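Sequence only, no structure available. Ideas?
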Amino acid sequence: MKALLAQFPALKPARDDRRGQAMVEYMLAVVVVIGLLVAMAYLLYALKQNGNRVLDLVASEYP
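Reply:
I predicted one. Tokens follow.
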């Protein structure tokens, strides 16, 4: 068994000081993805507002 653990160090049980690291990494990734989605939604809103302003200017009857 020790020879198998020596060949594959990933099979060794995790140390106590690394417990929860995967959960922290997943939560960080979720926060980053949510932040990107919020930024993209704000960009879409701003671009739609700008497009509406352009359409209003084009449709105006000002000479």
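The longest helix spans residues 21-59.
Hope that gets you unstuck.
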